[in-house]
Amino acid sequence: MNAFAAMLGRELRLALRGGGDVLTLVLFFVIVGAIVPFAVGPDKALLERIAPGIVWIAAFLAMLLGLDRLFRPDYEDGTLTLLRHADLPLSAAIAAKVIAHWLVSAVPLILASPVLTVLLAMEGDAFWRTVLSLLLGTPALAAFGAIGAAVTVSIRRGGLIAPILIAPLSIPVLIFGVGAITATQSSAALLFLAALSLMAAALAPFAAALAISSAED
Amino acid sequence: MTDRQVFPPLALRAEGLACGRGGMALSRDLTFSVEPGQCMLLRGPNGTGKTTLLLTLAGIVSPLEGSFALQGSDDDSPMLHYCGHRNAVKPRLSVRENLEFWRSMNGPTGIAADAALAEVGLGKLRDLDAGYLSAGQTRRLALARLLVSLRPLWLLDEPTAALDAAGHELVSKLIDRHLGVGGLAIAATHDPITLPGPGRLHTLLLGAEA
């Protein structure tokens, strides 16, 4: 447990001392949401209908942006090789990394999502549903993202391939994520979203560990 | 040797081992054994498979043929330290934070992080961002990792790379002490490593048949 905490602490320290990294994702998230109303034109009814989708697309893209730094730096400097001989199993180390990744890339988005709900002229009630749906859905995006990042870690420029691998896995998250914001089917979609996140979080560390172990052979 | 034995009597034995990468065999039919308190030096020109042999023994690359085993161990806990070309040192973390991290990951079974840093000559730099270390200092930090967690088998790939003359002596001293407590070491190096006492150092020459 001590080693798990050490891994988590190291990841958080590295991310926060990286300075601009976290802020970049948040700005990207807000900017994507902010430019859409200009692109679709002054149609408030249309905007209201597509707003949940825009929030989720912005969150999905922002999380893809931070994905490449999940394993690549550790692969390049030999950390992943050494982690295979650590007392902490590789899958547990990866679980800590995924949790840290979610904390530094998804939580800031969730905190910034109220800004987006204002920009997209969503009504007051939708604001809470947006926060809740991002809170329940982003762990699945982080976990699926970890699998994609691990599979492509040994490929140079693999950061461009990972999103292609992850996209099909992420589609259910987007569908239910948007559903959770839309008032009519909110609670069922939230349950589905939670189930997806739990399943992905349970599966991802093992899948990613396997991918990393075979990457160097 | 007055040091006590801290490791169970382990021996590394390889039988007809062939290693290679990307489908190309680099070394064939290697049979050797390393006993407690012994160090095996891997020598040979560049590209003859020294690193590949170490990676194979570390379990990172699978052997093409043959087998090897660390005999005398009955538990599954990690038994080896691998110290490769890449130092796994993170900029943005201080020297001490880097070492403390590995101490937690590998188990705090060795000496304290500060003592290890003093040992490798980085005691005064412990609060410095590790990104500012020179190549030799980064190497010293990587070597300090061997000290904070006790593991019987050391696999060292060019441990003296980028080190100065004092650094070469340091590597010899660390290996000497590790062997003194019953450890095993395999080191690939082009630099001379001398250890006091007979029968503790033997050499495996790779690429001789070519």
Overall, the morphology of chain A is elongated
Low-confidence stretches of chain B: none
Report the largest inter-chain contact: A-B, 27 and 29 residues
What is the number of independent domains of chain A? 1
CATH superfamily of the largest domain in chain B: P-loop containing nucleotide triphosphate hydrolases
CATH architecture of the largest domain in chain B: 3-Layer(aba) Sandwich
Rough shape of chain B?
globular
Q: What summary fits the major beta sheet of chain A?
A: none
What is the CATH fold-level name of the largest domain in chain B? Rossmann fold
What is the CA–CA distance across the termini of chain B?
Answer: 40 Å
Give me the side-by-side strand order of the main sheet of chain B: 5-6-7-3-8
**SSE pattern of chain B, N- to C-terminal:** EEEHEEHHHEHEE
For the record, give the distance between the C-alpha atoms at the N and C termini of chain A, rounded to a whole number.
29 Å
Question: Topology, pairings included?
Answer:
The complex is a heterodimer of chains A (217) and B (210).
Chain A: H1 2-17, H2 20-40, H3 44-65, H4 68-76, H5 79-83, H6 90-105, H7 107-119, H8 124-151, H9 162-181, H10 186-215
Helix pairs in contact in A: 1-6, 2-3, 2-7, 3-7, 3-8, 3-9, 6-8, 6-10, 7-8, 8-9, 8-10, 9-10
Chain B: E1 11-21, E2 24-34, E3 39-43, H1 50-57, E4 65-71, E5 80-83, H2 95-106, H3 113-119, H4 135-148, E6 153-157, H5 165-180, E7 184-188, E8 201-205
Parallel strand pairs in B: 3-7, 3-8, 5-6, 6-7
Antiparallel strand pairs in B: 1-2, 1-4
Helix pairs in contact in B: 2-4, 3-4
